[in-house]
Amino acid sequence: MLNLCPVTVVKLAPLMSLYDLEITDWQELLPKEPLFRSRQIWRAIHEDAVRPEQLTSLPKQLRNTLSQTPELSPGLRLIQLSSDDHKLTEKALFQLEDKRVIETVLMHYPERSTVCVSSQAGCAMNCSFCATGQQGYFRQLTTGEIVEQVIWAISRTRATRGEKRLSNVVFMGMGEPLANTRNVFRALTRINSDIGIGARHITISTVGIVPGIKLFASLGAQFNLAVSLHAANNEKRSSLVPINRRYPIELLTETLDSYFRVTRRRISFEWAMMDGVNDSDTDAKELISLCVPLEAHVNLIPLNPTPGWPTKGTPKTRVDEFARILENAGISASVRDNRGTGIDAACGQLAGTMLTRHSGERFYSDSSANIDVGDLLD
Ligand code: SF4
Q: Is 123 in the pocket of ligand 1 (CB under 6 A)?
């Protein structure tokens, strides 16, 4: 126990982030403080995204104590911030307590600001076109490490965009969120209930982890589900997204059908458009046949090139033609911006570059364990 009388702070088990503390932990941490203190701090660190010691309504002595409590130091250390698209896209590279590196991307649009958060350090899914997949899996992020990325994005939006508030959160950064359901679902609750971002503004993106989709449906909330499909036949999809061998398209669509019937939430399919790989008329027709029964929406995203995957993104004219084929078949489709190509925008690419640059120095760059996805499901 740290005895910092007259303000007593109890030492807790090692934390990866102060956002790993539950409100009851705050009560334990400050045993001599009135109960309302923990609620006051809780609200401020979530709703206002401020550090506890910056909360001027707290007594000065308590603020001093909080600022010197190692357990409350930030879990994410910003080691690089880069921007592109006239500063409308910013990428943060964070080092975690154990020196792992993750990235968080903040994107501003006229009508919204969206943060793309990581849910794992690395990823075990090994999608062939993805920079994170090329690095391998290191570990699950804790609830606090996920929430802290959102807190950073709120502060950053406030600092750079004035009155504008962070409006959307997407789990499309490093990692497969539905292979870290326990921590990700807790983070969803925090982001929704404590930070105050509406469930309809929060999206989980998965490569199609069937047990995770079933659990997600059972939450009974209004969150969005996006499925990274990229191909609509098993042979092609398995070569791009190897988890398709375990959860093939028939099983995936059956699960999505149940999800749709239970939640009444429309599913989105993400389709990274790869030149000559998945952008033919046949690919479009196969995609249409999956979308119709599910009433799914399609997001077409020109692929960001990655070092380990030489294929280029589909040219814009062909992306537009592909979209027209879908629309003529009655499928709702959007062509998404390819944001941040000048700053290693592709999923995991920035962290991958840093790992290579600093190999053997400050950052961990050992090869990942050979993980079975079943080991990751909780
Ligand atoms: S695309 Fe997503 S699921 Fe696939 S390897 Fe990359 S981070 Fe993992």
A: yes
**Residue 4, φ and ψ in degrees, nearest 5:** -110, 50
Identify whether residues 47 and 156 lie together within a single domain.
Answer: no
State the pLDDT at residue 357: 41
- Same-domain status, 108 and 125: yes
* DSSP letters for 146-190: HHHHHHHHHHHHHHHHTT----EEEE-SSS-GGGSHHHHHHHHHI
57 and 195 in a single domain? The answer is: no
Which residue range forms the structural domain that includes residue 36?
A: 18-72
Confidence at residue 366, expressed as pLDDT on a 0 to 100 scale: 35
The ligand 1 atom nearest the CA atom of 228 = 1
Structural tokens at position 275: 């030149």
Query: 0.85 exceeded by the pTM?
Result: yes
- Do 180 and 47 share a structural domain? no
39 and 91 housed in the same domain = no
Catalytic residue among 103, 145, 176, 286: 103
Q: What is the pLDDT of residues 267-279, one digit of tens each?
A: 999 999 999 999 9
Q: Is 145 a known active-site residue?
A: no
- 177 and 96, same domain (yes or no): yes
Q: Do 245 and 150 have their domain in common?
A: yes
67 plus 208 within the same structural domain: no
Query: Which tens digits make up the pLDDT trace of 77-112?
Result: 999 999 887 788 999 999 999 999 999 999 999 889
Residue 292: inside a domain, yes or no? Answer: yes
Q: How many domains are contained in the chain?
A: 2
Centre of ligand 1 from the C-alpha of residue 58, in Å: 43
What are the tens digits of pLDDT across the range 328-363? 999 999 998 766 555 554 454 445 444 444 333 323
pLDDT mean across residues, the chain: 87
CB 77 within 8 Å of CB 10: no
Give ∠ CA 100-120-132 in degrees, rounded to 5.
80
